């Protein structure tokens, strides 16, 4: 069975040494002293390791089942979900007005990493509820908030997002689900939705579906779409769970992974629902939650990689195979452990340097969301720009990292016994859902890059420029971090220039390079994170009695990223500069 | 259910326009006129599309099962295997002395691509038999060949390779299976082998295991290893199948993919076996088959990608989502097909340009094996050098291509219904078995590169240099093909120089860059293949009444590879040049 150990020390490093959350001047953040956050992370980590992780393989093997219209989750899920609720983990960063603990989102994300790493399929039940909670809290009326939120914060009721239909996912303008207004102000919802994660299950008393549908008079395309609250069970006057609504599970999807999560076909047959937010402005309501939801998926990408990496390390230290080329390392044994071999070490360093950089980016993103919730417009612009980068890059690279971790096991990685196949199969979905990564690249190039005449992009470059100026003369940072960051950042600027010059007249020129641009940006973002971590590490090493090995290892891991990963920006730029010609040259019939 | 269409035209192009097999002066090749090979490929393609492909999804879903010691393959496999046998496909490139048809290996590989693409798990039963056939044919005594080969050529009996044990796969020196010599010259084999593909099943009357084991007096490590023929059923005097040997299936592995192939734990409990080849020289006997076996796995990598690509194309043409940024392409429909979008086109071009380049490399490799069988030492050296490149690069990139094809389907790629998940899960094993790709990289850098003082590598460079000289002034080829090939080849030479300068004194410096070197080499090899295909296409376009669209598309697809894939060599070289420092800097405890 795969192991999982909570990376509390690394999370603490990012929270305090790098982001300095306690000093950020945000409401509630001043209470985030290292002792407090360590206690929170330790407790969450214990739940992740002791309760969630042991159910990961078994949940994958058992999967969910649909019997007589009722969905059952794998054995042990109910007890584990109860433990999540009782520990208050579902309420951590929720509004105290509805029973939440009111902690910053950045702490919620840090605990979320551990839960997702330990058991991604299981953690989705809570994750989707949090998304629905955010939507209702942002767009709901006071009455709606009072009605739905308290029991969603506690996860007595869970939530879903119902967007996709059989013929459309990305292009929601095509959707067919209808909402018929009733005299009492409610609507009757009719249509079929597919790929509904946590669509139904036995973990909660009620499931609160948020459903995109078309109400009369909204016009064609996405303009006519509204968002509705459609509960599985209608509520009685006293808000207790009442009669069943006309919503049912058509079937469960058979998937490549996340078997522990029930992916449902949902049938709405005149189900009663209530408008959430403004009529015909459902897409806007959806989009306000996107940054948070997409950052949550970005997190899954590197969290899965972290869990897979930990197991690859354990195997590489344990498995004896061959001898070190530089001399026998384990004379007492019949062979040396795998970890002595440079190519294994290269693989582990690829994984480790990615994961730690990704963690910093995700937590920085969460902190930017905390800032933006506090009215910081620059933070809001930045996170809006960085969200598709984090979602696309961290899930693409997170998947690659799970494949590398699996490879360390050789043939033992391909059989299901060690759980490495599951990490790969689970991580794969993060590249697809919450907007497939090609859509993230489109969002980045066509929407986020030009928004506000490129001010967010310029703010990002200004930040890197200021950083390089501040630390360019520091001999401990200059060659290993500042120089490569500057060089990679120049590649990113050159790509932006190319898009500006060519994209206006020939939009295909920009869109042909969109995925390369997202990855180029991702590398620069992780390079920036590593440079910031390096500054934090050198400062910490100057303190009295530092945890010397920890901080030196950060510098060495960061240097690896700068030297061996960051040079990818050159290739991405070269590809982007070829424009649309090579990409679009073939006639459709030639494929 | 996924579709599969045999790429006969593309195979014919490589065989005749590029490799000019008929003019190669090899025995038997002069009969390979285009009409003949087309007939062979058409017939094989029909079997692949009509019989094998329809069993791919069902075989994956059903898997193999072990009941009372008997292994059953999925429904339809027996009939399909019968069809393979009856069509003579198992005997195609086998020795006529044992019932084979004596066709060149290059044709065997071309048909093999189609079989593997249509149903990889199924085709492995024949593939492993072919490997065992080759081993016995090369190392067996006349009596052994007469005894075993005829029914293996016909696949009435199938074969296996028994190498891996629970505690060792790569490091076979550690293996524990013992061979006790008997007075009659036979041996009794005792031990446990794992991961034995096609180890047992219901498709043949007998299973001929080739088993690596240690016989007394051989010394420690790999030196003491011998290879034995151990049949499932012993033979009677008249060579008919007799009593059961003491070999049994312990269990079937649950795997990520290739569910239709029975991956067995094999228990040898004093099973009777006969020495194959020289005593204590089993490793050498294994290695003589390696080039062929590894090229067969390389083929699986791009064959899986081809099948996945075909389905991605069909989906991209069919699925309506969004509108082309350059203007509506499908005014009659509610949206445009996916294929209008540049990022989808980029993904399809990545897949297509890789697959066609990979096909050329694999067929060239097979042709080099045909040459080496005919005593061509340069060809033997070249294929020995190229084998780890083809195996590692085509399976790594082939897997990536299946992931890209799956991504085109969005959420529909993640559910099992469309078969895209299976292509990814099946392709994954090719990176692992027949020597994990890290081992291929090690073999390349530590063994193949320096062998004969680097003469094979020099021969490869000389070939590229001559090519560039010959075609550098051709205006239709220079900028698009020759210039980028020359540049990429220089990167490869620079990497070789780095290894030569540093690798002797610090072997870790070379081994830390081994995987990057393999990929750098792979890109140059595919770039060379594309340049050769471009030459063939321009020559064909000069003929009267050429198939103009076909050849122009070759040039455009090749140009894509040169412009958008080949620039990866820059990044690989940059990584290699960092040497071992960043890779080996962390203490083992820091992981």
Topology diagram in text:
The structure is a homodimer.
Chain A: H1 8-18, H2 34-52, H3 56-62, E1 65-67, E2 70-72, H4 77-86, H5 105-118, H6 120-139, H7 142-153, E3 157-162, E4 178-181, E5 187-197, E6 206-214, E7 225-231, E8 233-235, E9 241-244, E10 247-252, E11 263-276, H8 282-318, H9 342-373, H10 377-408, H11 411-414, H12 420-430, H13 437-448, H14 451-471, H15 478-503, H16 507-511, H17 514-542, H18 548-565, H19 568-577, H20 581-584
Parallel strand pairs in A: 3-6
Antiparallel strand pairs in A: 1-2, 4-5, 5-11, 6-7, 7-11, 8-9, 10-11
Helix pairs in contact in A: 1-2, 1-9, 2-5, 5-6, 5-8, 5-9, 6-7, 6-8, 8-9, 8-10, 8-12, 9-10, 9-17, 9-18, 10-12, 10-13, 10-14, 10-17, 13-17, 14-15, 15-17, 15-18, 15-19, 17-18, 17-19
Can you characterise this structure?
- The structure is a homodimer of 591-residue chains.
- Chain A is an alpha+beta fold and 591 residues long.
- Among the domains of chain A are: 285-440, Butyryl-CoA Dehydrogenase, subunit A, domain 3, CATH 1.20.140; 450-590.
- Chain A has helices at 8-18, 34-52, 56-62, 77-86, 105-118, 120-139, 142-153, 282-318, 342-373, 377-408, 411-414, 420-430, 437-448, 451-471, 478-503, 507-511, 514-542, 548-565, 568-577, 581-584, and strands spanning 65-67, 70-72, 157-162, 178-181, 187-197, 206-214, 225-231, 233-235, 241-244, 247-252, 263-276.
- In chain A, the strands form three sheets. In chain A, strands 3, 4, 5, 6, 7, 10 and 11 form a seven-stranded mixed β-sheet that branches. In chain A, strands 1-2 form a two-stranded antiparallel ribbon.
- In chain A, helix 5 runs antiparallel to helix 9 (342-373), helix 8 (282-318) runs antiparallel to helix 12 (420-430) and helix 10 packs across helix 14 (451-471).
- The longest helix of chain A has 37 residues, at 282-318.
- Chain A is globular, with a radius of gyration of 24 Å.
- The interface between A and B is large, with 93 and 94 residues.
- Chains A, B: Belongs to the acyl-CoA dehydrogenase family.
- Chains A, B: Its cofactor is FAD.
- Chains A, B: Residues 281-447 form the Acyl-CoA dehydrogenase/oxidase C-terminal domain.
């Amino acid at each position: 069975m795969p192991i999982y150990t909570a990376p509390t020390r690394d999370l603490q490093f990012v929270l305090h040494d790098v982001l300095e959350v306690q000093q950020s001047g945000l409401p509630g953040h001043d209470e985030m002293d290292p002792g407090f956050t360590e206690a929170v992370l330790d407790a969450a980590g214990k739940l992740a390791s002791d309760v969630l992780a042991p159910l990961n393989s078994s949940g994958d093997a058992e999967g969910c089942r649909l019997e007589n219209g009722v969905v059952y989750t794998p054995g042990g899920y109910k007890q584990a979900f109860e433990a999540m609720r009782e520990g208050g983990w579902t309420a951590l960063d929720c509004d105290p007005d509805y029973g939440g603990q009111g902690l910053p989102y950045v702490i919620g994300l840090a605990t979320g990493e551990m839960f997702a790493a330990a058991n991604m399929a299981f953690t989705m039940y809570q994750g989707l509820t949090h998304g629905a909670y955010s939507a209702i809290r942002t767009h709901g009326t006071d009455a709606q908030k009072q009605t739905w939120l308290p029991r969603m914060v506690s996860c007595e009721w869970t939530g879903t997002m119902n967007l996709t239909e059989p013929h459309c996912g990305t292009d929601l303008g095509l959707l067919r689900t209808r909402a018929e207004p009733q005299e009492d102000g409610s609507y009757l919802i009719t249509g079929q939705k597919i790929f509904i994660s946590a669509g139904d299950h036995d973990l909660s008393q009620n499931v609160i579906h948020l459903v995109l549908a078309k109400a009369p008079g909204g016009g064609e395309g996405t303009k006519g779409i509204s968002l509705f609250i459609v509960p599985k069970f209608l509520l009685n006057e006293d808000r207790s769970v009442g009669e069943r609504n006309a919503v049912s599970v058509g079937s469960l999807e058979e998937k490549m992974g996340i078997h522990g999560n029930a992916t449902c076909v949902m049938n709405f047959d005149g189900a009663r629902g209530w408008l959430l937010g403004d009529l015909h402005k459902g897409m806007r309501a959806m989009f306000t939650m996107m940054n948070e939801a997409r950052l949550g998926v970005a997190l899954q990408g590197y969290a899965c990689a972290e869990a897979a990496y930990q197991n690859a390390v354990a195997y590489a230290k344990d498995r004896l195979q061959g001898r070190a080329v530089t001399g026998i390392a384990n004379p007492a044994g019949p062979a040396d452990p795998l970890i002595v071999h440079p190519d294994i070490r290269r693989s582990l360093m690829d994984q480790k340097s990615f994961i730690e950089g990704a963690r910093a980016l995700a937590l920085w993103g969460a902190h930017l969301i905390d800032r933006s919730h506090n009215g910081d417009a620059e933070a809001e612009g930045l996170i809006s720009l960085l969200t598709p980068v984090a979602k696309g890059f961290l899930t693409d690279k997170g998947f690659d990292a799970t494949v590398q971790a699996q490879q360390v096991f050789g043939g033992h990685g391909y059989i299901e016994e060690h759980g490495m196949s599951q990490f790969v199969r689970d991580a794969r979905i993060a590249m697809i859902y919450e907007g497939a990564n090609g859509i993230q690249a489109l969002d980045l190039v066509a929407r986020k890059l030009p928004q506000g005449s490129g001010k967010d992009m310029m703010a990002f470059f200004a930040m890197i420029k200021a950083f390089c100026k501040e630390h360019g003369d520091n001999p401990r940072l200059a060659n290993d971090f500042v120089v490569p960051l500057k060089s990679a950042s120049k590649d990113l600027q050159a790509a932006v220039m190319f898009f500006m010059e060519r994209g206006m007249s020939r939009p295909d020129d920009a869109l042909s390079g969109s995925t390369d641009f997202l990855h180029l940006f991702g590398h620069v973002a992780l390079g920036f994170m590593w440079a910031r971590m390096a500054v934090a590490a050198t400062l910490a090493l100057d303190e009295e009695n530092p945890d010397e090995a920890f901080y030196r290892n950060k510098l060495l891991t960061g240097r690896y990223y700068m030297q061996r990963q960051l040079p990818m920006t050159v290739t991405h730029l070269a590809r982007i500069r070829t424009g649309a010609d090579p990409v679009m040259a073939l006639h459709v019939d030639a494929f």
